[in-house]
Design a protein that fits this description.
The protein has 476 residues and is an alpha/beta fold. The strands form five sheets. The chain has a four-stranded parallel beta sheet with strand order 4-3-9-10, sandwiched between helices. The chain has a four-stranded antiparallel beta sheet with strand order 5-6-7-8. It has a three-stranded mixed beta sheet with strand order 12-11-13. Helix 3 runs parallel beside helix 15, helix 6 crosses helix 7 and helix 11 runs antiparallel to helix 12. It is globular and about 80 Å long. It starts with a strand and ends with a strand.
Amino acid sequence: MKVFNTLTRSKEEFVPITPGKAGIYVCGPTVYDFIHIGNARPMIVFDTLRRYLEYKGYEVNYVSNFTDVDDKIIKRANEEGEDPSVISERFIAECKKDMEALNVRPATTHPQATKEIPDMIEMIKTLIENGHAYEKNGTVYFRTRSFENYGKLSHKNIDDLEAGHRDEAHQLKVSGEDEKEDGLDFVLWKPKKEGEPFWPSPWGDGRPGWHLECSVMSKKYIGGTIDIHAGGEDLIFPHHENEIAQSEAANGTEFARYWMHNGFLRIANDNDEFEKMSKSLGNFKTVREICGKYDPQVVRFFMLSAQYRSPLNFSPKLIEASKNSLERILTAAEKLRDVMAKGNVAENAETDAKAVEELNSFVKRFEEAMDDDLNTADAISVIFEMVKYSNTVADSVSSDVADKYYDMLRILTDVLGIIIEKKDDVLDADIEKLIAERQEARKAKDFARADAIRDELLGMGIELKDTREGVKWKRV
């Protein structure tokens, strides 16, 4: 399998540190609100990477963190009069619900920054001892120029970066707001402020810098060198660049063998032009909101319809197209189930043999697409060819061959996180029970729980409609 390594800007054969095992670290969300669909793309893409590596026989240690202490969390906590930990725990729970709806498997470990503070302090101590960090009035900074290869991931020249920071750094020094030795130095530990959470440290009460968290958690749960570090391309600089600098300076070893980054998600505006999603533009969409309108499986399928490094345009028109495309696969699966149930006998042995030969060819081409830097778009195209062929031969092959097609279709779609099993086995009584629970949640003004139940039902193929006569539902 080849992956595009951001570090070398080329496709490279994936060779793990330990044969048969793969350690993957994916930067997770900062939990101050419901996750947005931009957050969902790396979750889905790298969950698919994990699934494919497992399909190939690897034992995968998949680690994805939650940043549960941050300025945005503190701001929301102050607005709501809550402790920041209450806010972060609430939205960690909500994030996990959205991930489940999108069929994103739980990580092997989901570390939280606030639970790893002692190890962060130890890494800072190491960096100070070896001259890569220094303390000024309770703030600890990383000496960026002390790390010789700074800029190797983002392919930025440190002198060009310094020129860009010079005026800003000068203004801060004049005002006395910055005591950095160099404008490029970044924070490892910041002193506490009134009304903010803090932890004791040798440099005074405070909290860690954002970049430090991932360096510490990846080392603890995977090791000093990890196979694959992944995330959105917006994290390349400065977050991932700073992770490399502090990790390699502290550990004395390569931080990550391969760096994988997904492209941006762009949202259609009223003029059908695509632009970056942001709250200021009013085009901010949460996963919860989108999954209230579309089956989460459609959302996942849509996210995989383009190669992960390409920008992905999001619009109702495009997601409707994904809905129709996914329906073609589900319909073909249903037809195969019907043939299996009939107990058909092949018209002749050659028909069965030819169908099995074609099936093996489809599997080989699917694997070739996925081996080519996780090209899910091409892999999906192969699945479309496979279901088109199965539709034409289903009535003339034996039930045994239909079973082979169905089983392989189930395996390949499972690699993509797409479920083809029938949802009609959900009992009416179970549906009514969940609807009643939702009504109780609404009466209690627990709208988060009410929305979660609606999403859960939608994931089961049940669509709700609130009317004057009460809640109506139908299978979709």
